[in-house]
Specification:
Layout: H1 2-53, E1 57-61, E2 69-70, H2 72-83, E3 87-92, E4 100-101, H3 108-116, H4 119-124, E5 127-128, E6 139-142, H5 148-151, H6 156-167, E7 171-175, E8 198-199, H7 209-214, H8 219-225, E9 229-230, E10 240-243, E11 246-249, H9 255-272
Parallel strand pairs: 1-3, 1-6, 2-4, 3-5, 6-7, 7-11, 8-9
Antiparallel strand pairs: 10-11
Helix pairs in contact: 2-9
């Protein structure tokens, strides 16, 4: 009996010591993992703050030509990009105020918003395209209208900026006649930007008599001639074609869905980086 109690008395402190040791180890690991988790949380928060403080910037380009740019194709993308928290600059071939067309196509809500926003002032004071530094922008968007068919096509600054943004991993986008800006863009490898690319623009069946008599060419014909893979939908129907970091819309009805695709692609690029 005495031996029995002696043995029990001997084991009890041993068991207590083991329990104490296990508790210490558990506490130690808890502290280590909690500290690591906290550090990761702080690191993630800091990274998110960096992303928040480094907003992406979009360049919208409008025509300076007397035939004008299409205002709805500026206002609608501008609204969506602002809502998505992008910074925006507006440029044009010569800078300053251009001729806006399409006021009558704006809804009453859009007209009211335009009166209260800073967009009107930005349109009246657009930046001359040759003053733009391409590295400041993650994307470029060319708005349509009749004007681009006359002052976008052979503009050296437009071509150089577009090439620089695209080859730095940025996004190139355009709607309707704004696609005229892309026709003569040449990459550093000597190939045209649109060569072999899927894209759209104002379709031949959407062009009226005035366009056929005054434009230097029709976009659908020229895109095919230059090696682009042209795609279109029925007259007036929204149509957006995405080929990697090249996004194009067919007509004014495509401006909003085109901008949504632009935002999506930019979001994907940011996530992957």
């Amino acid at each position: 009996m005495n031996n029995f109690f002696t043995l029990k008395t001997y084991q009890q402190p041993l068991n207590a010591s083991l329990i104490y040791l296990i508790l210490c180890i558990t506490v130690l690991f808890t502290i280590i993992f909690s500290t690591k988790s906290l550090a990761n949380s702080l690191e993630s928060h800091a990274y998110a703050q960096v992303l928040k403080n480094n907003k992406q910037k979009i360049l919208i380009v409008i025509s300076s030509d007397r035939h004008g740019y299409w205002l709805p194709e500026v206002l609608e993308p501008y609204q969506l990009l602002r809502q998505a928290d992008f910074e925006i600059d507006i440029a044009s071939p010569v800078g300053g105020k251009g001729k806006a067309s399409g006021h009558l196509r704006l809804s009453s809500a859009q007209k009211s918003w335009l009166e209260q926003s800073s967009l009107s002032a930005e349109l009246d004071n657009s930046i001359a395209i040759n003053q733009i530094v391409a590295n400041n922008y993650q994307a470029i968007y060319f708005a349509g209208g009749s004007g681009p068919m006359f002052d976008f096509i052979n503009n050296d600054s437009i071509q150089k900026i577009t090439t620089a943004i695209y080859e730095s991993g940025g996004v190139v986008s355009a709607d309707c006649h704004g696609i005229a800006a892309l026709l003569n863009v040449t990459l550093t490898n000597g190939n045209r930007l649109i060569s072999g690319k899927k894209l759209t623009a104002k379709a031949n069946h959407e062009e009226g008599l005035w366009a056929r008599n005054n434009y230097p060419f029709l976009l659908e014909d020229k895109i095919i001639e230059l090696g682009g893979q042209y795609q279109s939908q029925d007259k007036g129907k929204a149509n957006v074609v995405v080929d990697g970091r090249l996004i194009t819309g067919q007509n004014p009805a495509s401006a909003i869905p085109m901008t949504k695709q632009l935002i999506q692609v930019l979001s994907t690029i940011t996530t992957n980086n």
